[in-house]
């Protein structure tokens, strides 16, 4: 089963090997929200480059923010 990201639920920056690393909390297609995982942004963008994940960021009120460029 190949998982695909549905939405970015949250963002954080961690310190790893002497560098700051941006991570996203990802909700995966076909899995419940409780199965969301923290993933490195750079790796996600590389693996899912055609999905424009930066345009699938959940807002604080629970909706998904989609820029006008994506429409």
UniProtKB/TrEMBL annotation:
InterPro entries: Chromo-like_dom_sf, Chromo_domain. Residues 8-45 form the Chromo domain. Pfam families: Chromo. This is Chromo domain-containing protein. The lineage of its organism: Eukaryota, Viridiplantae, Streptophyta, Embryophyta, Tracheophyta.
